[in-house]
Amino acid sequence: MRLTVIGTGYLGATHAACMAELGHEVLGVDADPEKVAALGAGRVPFHEPGLPELIARHTASGRLRFTSSFAEAGAFGEVHFVCVGTPQRADSGAADLSQVDAAFAALAAHAAPDALLVGKSTVPVGTAERLARTYDAEIAWNPEFLREGFAVQDTLRPDRLVFGVASPRAEAVLRAVYAPVLAAGTPLVTADFPTTELVKTAANAFLATKISFINAMAEVCEAAGGDVRTLAEALGHDDRIGPEFLRAGLGFGGGCLPKDIRAFAHRAGELGVPLRLLREVDAINMRRRDRVVELAREQCGGAVLGARITVLGAAFKPGLDDIRDSPALAVAARLRLEGADVTVYDPQAADNARKAFPLLGYAGTVEDALRGADLVLHLTEWPQFREIDPERAATLVARPRIVDGRGGLDADRWTAAGWRFRAPGRPVPAGEGQ
Ligand SMILES: NC(=O)C1=CN([C@@H]2O[C@H](COP(=O)(O)OP(=O)(O)OC[C@H]3O[C@@H](n4cnc5c(N)ncnc54)[C@H](O)[C@@H]3O)[C@@H](O)[C@H]2O)C=CC1
Ligand SMILES: O=C(O)[C@H]1O[C@H](OP(=O)(O)OP(=O)(O)OC[C@H]2O[C@@H](n3ccc(=O)[nH]c3=O)[C@H](O)[C@@H]2O)[C@H](O)[C@@H](O)[C@@H]1O
After folding, report:
1. Where is the UDP-glucose/GDP-mannose dehydrogenase C-terminal domain (predicted)?
2. Is the CB of 196 under 6 A from ligand 1?
3. Of the bound ligands, which one is closest to the alpha carbon of residue 70?
4. Out of 18, 221, 256, 300, which one is annotated catalytic?
């Protein structure tokens, strides 16, 4: 089939490449000409495992092309997937739908009369019905559940597909697009527009709630002297709870969970449902950043003014160069504001971090970052940080003091090597004293 993908950011670039991999002819459309040029030359402007190979293969074969022209997209596509951004509005927690509205308006003006316009962006419930009322075109919604870092595999082998459709024809078209994925046994849920939009926002709200639940338990552990890591391990053995998304620490960031729970709470409020639960999920999450800043102050004897602090990690999670709403950088920037001399090391995200936070220092290697530090903060759990030898690291720093903001380090090893080790939600290691 001939598909277009409108908006070729993280979601759209992945979707376009994966649709080409499924055998479709794909035209990616983006308002940003630099992005169009880069992708057209087979270059992916962000780090995502497996994606550069797919883009290169399909741009080389001619099955995947990119353009800025909606006229070209309209003439080409039988099905148009809208993957533009839905960021948080500056004046409230609500989703900014201007990119979605602009994309649908442009498609309505250029698409063939029998083309199917499919929204993939995460939108507040009610958006699809509003667009369907506005335009004389058939609309469907097909939300996306991919995780950054696993985007290609999550698109080609998703846990489920959800089709929000208003006619048997729309469902048949989407079944044809995803035929190889469905043939592999992927569960399909077909629903009306409101349910479909809610599946997406509810999924992200549930994931955020699970993380904030375990972080709330971390707060109780801190007050009561318990260990949240052991607590999470024991909880996770219960099949009804499961071990995933129970990693306590610095909390969630990224381009989706924080903005999506705020947009959902805002939209629910408009519908007369307070959904205070999500406000609390957000508040618990933001308190985790405060807690790590507090632990940094404690480690420095009460204030960080003048302290040389090394921050390990800048990406919002390991495996990426994405720094959108990065908890690690939020903490680094706070400490810089409080007068610390902050040096960040991240294996992938340093360039993006440098552009967004030019006042922080950046090191090219872990060793350079550690050299002369008064305090080390572990804020994004890249696997290589677990490989750091605490004894060797102790010889590099000025003072062996560390805060494990992600709970991934072995407290006993670091303590045995002479480090003063602190972690949110965990007691002071035995044998260390204060
Ligand atoms: N990043 C992710 O892992 C996932 C994102 N989502 C949702 O997908 C949507 C897109 O997210 P991202 O890809 O992360 O955003 P992004 O900001 O990386 O990409 C959006 C792209 O759309 C382009 N664009 C904006 N307006 C346009 C227009 N009128 N015409 C053509 N192109 C236009 C921008 O230039 C940009 O390249 C959001 O609603 C997000 O919540 C859903 C699941 C996963
Ligand atoms: O709508 C979206 O865009 C996507 O948002 C999340 O995916 P993503 O933002 O890529 O990242 P996650 O793996 O969910 O991690 C989000 C944040 O939670 C944090 N996290 C995750 C798990 C955990 O146990 N504890 C924890 O603090 C991570 O460090 C990270 O900062 C969802 O997992 C995807 O299903 C969804 O499609």
Report:
1. 310-411
2. no
3. 1
4. 256
Categorise residue 417: left if φ over 0, alpha if ψ from -120 to 50, beta otherwise.
alpha
Q: Single out the residue of 81, 84, 100 nearest to residue 19, CA to CA.
A: 81
Cβ neighbours of residue 349 closer than 8 Å, sequence gap 6 or more:
314, 315, 320, 321, 322, 323, 326, 380
Which ligand does the CA of 88 lie closest to? 1
Q: pLDDT tens-digit profile of 159-213?
A: 999 999 999 999 999 999 999 999 999 999 999 999 999 999 999 999 999 999 9
Q: Is the CB of 13 under 6 A from ligand 1?
A: no
Please identify which residue in the block is written with the tokens 């909390």. 251
Tell how far the Cα of 336 is from the centroid of ligand 1, in angstroms: 31
Q: Contact 174/163 with Cβ under 8 angstroms?
A: yes
ipTM above 0.90, yes or no: yes
Domains, the chain, in order of start with CATH, read 2-191 (3.40.50.720), 201-282 (1.10.1040.10), 288-422 (3.40.50.720)
Residue 426 DSSP one-character state: S
